[in-house]
Amino acid sequence: MNLYSIKDPSFLKQKNDEELKILAQDVREFLIQSCSRTGGHIGANLGVVELTIALHKHFDSPDDRLIFDVGHQAYIHKILTGRISEFETLRQYKGLCGFPKMRESDHDVWEAGHSSTSLSAAMGIAKARDIKGEDHHVIPVIGDGALTGGMALEALNHIGSDRTNMTIILNDNEMSIAPNVGAMHNMLGRMRTNTQYNRVKHDIEDFLNRLPQVGSRLRDMADRIKDSMKYLVVDGVFFEELGIKYIGPVDGHDFAELSNAINISKDYKGPVVIHVITKKGKGYHPAEDDKLGKWHGLGPYKIDTGEVLGSKSTPSWSEFMSNTVLERAKKDERIVALTPAMPVGSKLTKFQNELPERFFDVGIAEQHAVTMSGGLAASGMRPYLAIYSTFLQRGYDQLLHDVDRQNLNVFLGIDRSGLVGADGETHQGVFDISFISPLPNMTLMMPKDEIEAEQMIDLAFRHEGPVALRYPRGNIKGIEAPAPREPLEYGSWDTVMEGDDLSIISFGPTLDLAIDAAVALKDAGINAGVINARFIKPMDEEMLQSIGYAGKPVLTVEETMLNGGLGSMIAAFMADHGFKNGIRRIGIDNEYVEHGDVNKLLEDIGITTDNIILQSKTLLELENEKEIKN
Ligand SMILES: Cc1ncc(C[n+]2csc(CCOP(=O)(O)OP(=O)(O)O)c2C)c(N)n1
Ligand SMILES: CC(=O)[C@@H](O)[C@H](O)COP(=O)(O)O
Ligand SMILES: [Mg+2]
User: Fold this and answer.
1) pTM for the full model?
2) How much distance in Å is there from the Cα of 35 to the middle of ligand 1?
3) How high is the ipTM of this complex?
4) Which residue, of 173, 187, 344, 518, has the fewest CB within 10 Å?
């Protein structure tokens, strides 16, 4: 069929299974073609083509509420709700979002990007339905990876005890981004292979139903036999014991099985989980055969070979960090590495292969990862926890209460610090400075290049107390065979360009923009100094005092939120010490930054060389006006 003619999912009601199969084929073909040009979460989406079609056929979205966990697998949902023509702009600046987005469609009733939120959201939506006396279905769709997240378990605990009516779709493809891990994953594996329990249970139910006159004592006895069967034939009937009816396992690529399971669930009063077995990457060989998680989400690729396009000149920051830590770990047995489900993104697979006994992928469990790092440190180990800036948000209390408060030697590698681009609002790594800097014992750094990063790694493993090192998405500079540098002086900033007219203070990738601006300003007769504020906490107070006494205006440049960023800390320092220097700050002002090419986003925000030049000039003009008035 012409997929471009789809306006909403209502057409599915008339389709039989054979027609749905053809539709699924067309959708797959479209996804493979379209994502080869734009990139995106192709593997996850190819796995849920039939499932999403079946959900839209049997439920009535948007009255019935489909809630996609993480939301990276909602492309088919977007196609079926009339958004196919926007796929050429997927994850691009001002284009279609890679996750559900309420402003795009009424069918997107919940937004996400972070994992394991769907069940709590579903509980809230279902409770509101019940309080308001409404009558619609609530259908959270959660993956086996997302089920390893603590929030999902907290929600199940509530849903099961409350017996709230909803249909939970558990999409089990045995993969998180990497192969899934953990006891929950092992348990699902046993359920997947154990169809015996369901068959026996079904046979008994069938038998009882066919005997309408059966006496209550006989029925009670049969029910007890049926209940005890689960202990005999299944390792753990986790969901049923929680009070959630379990239907499955269901072949997630078979429309008849899916329809049957969904229809049973619709008649049931109370919570139901349908355990759907799918194959990530289904229908496209490179993605289907992927055991490493590369095809979970990626950039444009060549369809015939599966080759990922785009040149890679230097190693990524993640690769550099993980490999440098690995080299140190080979010499220091106290060093262990942890990741909450991101061994692929954080490039820790080499560490995992070479030192498996000192590597922990704990699943999507940021809170656990942070506190476990604390536990390791409390016992004399030197844990390195690689964690994306955006996902560290979920481990904040653990960072504060468990790690920082106890002043433990945990080394956080804060991956994807700064703007990340295509994933957008939910994933920009721009809040960590604001939430980490108030923690009294924390050291927070960001290097300007990999040489400085090496010095910081060295410092982090020697330092007593928690240390966080931010590094961006993207690649290192590839500096050739540098001379070994002196160890970093703790808390010291570095003057990279002298200049008396004003000080431009920056760190990390934006430092280069500041240097370019200062060079251009020199040509315009303005003597701008540039300072590398490589320690965000503690700040170099000696240097700030000297700037303060010199009365130099200050321009700060950072790819983070202004509220709580370095600029605001410098402004507070100046005010607290009675300095009246003029200060301007460049950074992100009180808004969420959407998806798109990082350079375009930086331009929108004003984190550019041109704007640094402009703001420097404005700052100096304002200072001159101030002087004239005085
Ligand atoms: C809190 C949080 N941690 C980590 C991630 C990164 N992440 C995105 S999808 C994903 C795997 C999810 O696996 P699953 O739920 O099984 O979905 P699948 O991709 O297999 O369909 C991970 C780890 C995230 N989005 N949110
Ligand atoms: C959906 C999700 O959270 C991840 O798949 C994320 O998109 C990975 O981002 P990177 O590509 O930066 O590793
Ligand atoms: Mg999965």
Assistant:
1) 0.94
2) 19
3) 0.99
4) 187
